C-alpha cells in the first residue's frame, strides 16, 4: 500500500466541497438490485469502496458505469450470475448489504462473509434475525452466507436488540418486496437510513418512518426503478475536515453538506471553544483561541458518531487538560492511540475508555493506518505535528476519502503520496 506524507504545522484555510456519502452510496448501490430498470445515481464519490462495490455488483450480472465524475448508471440484472466473489467482498464490510436485496428479488443469495476494517467483531446476528423473521432460510457454509426464500418473503415485526445500521438497511430493503407489512422496531436512525428509504421510495417502495425508531414498510411486487437519485453529502468526510480545521487553528468553509447531520460534532467542537457557523448547506469552522478539553461518548445517531471518534482523539491530544473518550460501538477503535503515542500523544486506554492528557505539540513520525478512520485521524495528527509524518497503509484512507491530498493542498497543507 502507498504512504501519505505530510509536512505539518500549517493551519488549514479556504473553501472545500464535500462529496456524496460513502455509506449511503454503498447501501443505495445494493438497493438497485431491487429495481427492474436502470437507475441513475448522482453525488456518488469515486472512492475505492464504491469501486469495489461496483466490481461486486457487476460480477453478479449488473451493468454499471460512470456517466460523469460523480454520476453512475446501474442496470440491475434480470437474474444473478454467481456468488459475490470473496476477493472483492473481503475488502468491504458493506457487501453484506446485498443479502436483503438478493433474497427479496431473486429468492436466493450467496455472499462471502464480508471483510472491511478491523474495528471489532462485527457479528451479523441481527441481519440474520431480521431476514429469518421475513421467512428467509440462512446458513453459513465455508465462509459463505447462503440464503433462500422459498416463495416470496413475508412481512413481519422485527425488533432489533441494538439499532444496527446494516441490519436496519438489509431488513428494510428485503421488506420492500415482501408480502404484507414489516415493522422494524428499535431501528437505526442514521441519516444514511433515511437516504436509503428516500431512494427506495423514489423507485416505487412504500417505506415510512425512516429516521425514527419504528420503520414501517408495505411490500410491493417490484420496484420499477428508471429514476435518478442524488445521495446525501458525506457527514464523516465533512466532520473529518471540520476537526482538521479546528486542530490546526484554521478557518475553513465546507460546502455541499447538511449541517444538522453534523450537529453531534458541532456541539462538541463548540464545547471545546471552536467557532462553528452553520448556514443552509455550508459550515464554517474557525479556531482562533486555545481549545478546551472535552469528553465524548460514541452512540448511535443522533449521538456522537464512532466514525469521527479517532479524528477527535487526534485533535484532543494537544488540548491542555484531560479529555475522556468512551467508545460504545466498536471495541477495536482505539488502535490509533498507539500510533498517536508514537507522535508524542499521552493516551491511556482501558477497555472502552481512553484518557487523553493534552501535550504541548505532536512530532512528525512514521505511523500506519490500522483502519479507515484511524488513517483519517493520523492525517489530522500529521497536519498538527511539527515536522514530517509518513502514514503507511494509505489504502485504508482511500476507502472513504476522494482526492484527499488535492483537497488538503487546496486548503494550504503540504501533503503528498509516496
Ligand atoms: C457501510 C456502513 O454503513 N458502515 C457503517 C455502519 O456499519 P455497520 O452497519 O456494520 O454498523 P452497525 O450499526 O451494524 O454496528 C453497530 C454495533 O452493532 C453490533 N452488531 C451489528 C450487527 C449485528 O447483527 N449484530 C451486532 O451485534 C456491531 O458489532 C456494533 O457493535 O454503521 C456504523 C455505526 O454507525 C459505522 O461505523 C459504519 O461506518
Ligand atoms: C467503519 C466504517 O466503514 P465500514 O462499515 O464499511 O467498515 C467507516 O466508514 O468508518
TrEMBL record:
GO CC terms in record: cytoplasm
GO term, biological process aspect, one: UDP-N-acetylgalactosamine biosynthetic process
Pathways per UniProt: Cell wall biogenesis; peptidoglycan biosynthesis
Boundaries of every Enolpyruvate transferase domain copy: 7-408
Subcellular compartments: Cytoplasm
Family annotation (CDD domains): UdpNAET
Enzyme Commission no: 2.5.1.7
2-(S-cysteinyl)pyruvic acid O-phosphothioketal carried by residues: 117
Gene from which the chain derives: murAA_2
Positions contributing to UDP-N-acetyl-alpha-D-glucosamine binding: 93, 122-126, 307, 329
GO molecular function: UDP-N-acetylglucosamine 1-carboxyvinyltransferase activity
Similarity comment: Belongs to the EPSP synthase family. MurA subfamily.
Catalytic class of the enzyme: transferase
InterPro entries assigned: Enolpyruvate_Tfrase_dom (IPR001986), Enolpyruvate_Tfrase_sf (IPR036968), MurA_subfamily (IPR050068), RNA3'P_cycl/enolpyr_Trfase_a/b (IPR013792), UDP_GlcNAc_COvinyl_MurA (IPR005750)
Main location: cytoplasm
Record's function text: Cell wall formation. Adds enolpyruvyl to UDP-N-acetylglucosamine.
Recorded catalytic activity of this chain's protein: phosphoenolpyruvate + UDP-N-acetyl-alpha-D-glucosamine = UDP-N-acetyl-3-O-(1-carboxyvinyl)-alpha-D-glucosamine + phosphate
Binding site residues for phosphoenolpyruvate: 22-23
Record-given protein name: UDP-N-acetylglucosamine 1-carboxyvinyltransferase
Keywords associated with the record: Cell cycle, Cell division, Cell shape, Cell wall biogenesis/degradation, Cytoplasm, Peptidoglycan synthesis, Pyruvate, Transferase
Active site: 117 (proton donor)
Pfam families reported for this sequence: EPSP_synthase
Amino acid at each position: 500500500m502507498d504512504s501519505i506524507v505530510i509536512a505539518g504545522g500549517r493551519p488549514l484555510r479556504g473553501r472545500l466541497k464535500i462529496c456524496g456519502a460513502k455509506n449511503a452510496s454503498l447501501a443505495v448501490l445494493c438497493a438497485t438490485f431491487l429495481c427492474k430498470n436502470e437507475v441513475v445515481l448522482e453525488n456518488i464519490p469515486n472512492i475505492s469502496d464504491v469501486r469495489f462495490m461496483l466490481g461486486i455488483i457487476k460480477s453478479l450480472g449488473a451493468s454499471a458505469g460512470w456517466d460523469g465524475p460523480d454520476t453512475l448508471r446501474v442496470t440491475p440484472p434480470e437474474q444473478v450470475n454467481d456468488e459475490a466473489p470473496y476477493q472483492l467482498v473481503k475488502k468491504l464490510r458493506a457487501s453484506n448489504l446485498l443479502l436483503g436485496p438478493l433474497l427479496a428479488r431473486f429468492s436466493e443469495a450467496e455472499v462471502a462473509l464480508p471483510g472491511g476494517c478491523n474495528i471489532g467483531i462485527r457479528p451479523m446476528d441481527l441481519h440474520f434475525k431480521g431476514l429469518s423473521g421475513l421467512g428467509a432460510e440462512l446458513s453459513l457454509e465455508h465462509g459463505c452466507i447462503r440464503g433462500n426464500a422459498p416463495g416470496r418473503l413475508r412481512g413481519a415485526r422485527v425488533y432489533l436488540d441494538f439499532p444496527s445500521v446494516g441490519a436496519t438497511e438489509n431488513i428494510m430493503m428485503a421488506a420492500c418486496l415482501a408480502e404484507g407489512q414489516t415493522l422494524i422496531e428499535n431501528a437505526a436512525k442514521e441519516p444514511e437510513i433515511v437516504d436509503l428509504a428516500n431512494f427506495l421510495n423514489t423507485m416505487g417502495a412504500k417505506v415510512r418512518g425512516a429516521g425514527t425508531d419504528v420503520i414501517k414498510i408495505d411490500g410491493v411486487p417490484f420496484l420499477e426503478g428508471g429514476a435518478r437519485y442524488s445521495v446525501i453529502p458525506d457527514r464523516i468526510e465533512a466532520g473529518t475536515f471540520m476537526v482538521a480545521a479546528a486542530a490546526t487553528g484554521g478557518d475553513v468553509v465546507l460546502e455541499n453538506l447538511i449541517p444538522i447531520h453534523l450537529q453531534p460534532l458541532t456541539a462538541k467542537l463548540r464545547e471545546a471553544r471552536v467557532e462553528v457557523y452553520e448556514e443552509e448547506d455550508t459550515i464554517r469552522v474557525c479556531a482562533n483561541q486555545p481549545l478546551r478539553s472535552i469528553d465524548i461518548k460514541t452512540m448511535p445517531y443522533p449521538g456522537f458518531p464512532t466514525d469521527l471518534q479517532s479524528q477527535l482523539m487526534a485533535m484532543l491530544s494537544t488540548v491542555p487538560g484531560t479529555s475522556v473518550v468512551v467508545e460504545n460501538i466498536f471495541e477495536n477503535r482505539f488502535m490509533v492511540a498507539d500510533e498517536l503515542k508514537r507522535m508524542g500523544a499521552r493516551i491511556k486506554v482501558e477497555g472502552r475508555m481512553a484518557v487523553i492528557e493534552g501535550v504541548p505539540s505532536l512530532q512528525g513520525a512514521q505511523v500506519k493506518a490500522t483502519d479507515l478512520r484511524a488513517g483519517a485521524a493520523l492525517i489530522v495528527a500529521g497536519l498538527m505535528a511539527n515536522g514530517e509524518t509518513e502514514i503507511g497503509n494509505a489504502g485504508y484512507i482511500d476507502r472513504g476519502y476522494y482526492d484527499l491530498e488535492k483537497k488538503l493542498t487546496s486548503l494550504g497543507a503540504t501533503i503528498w503520496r509516496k
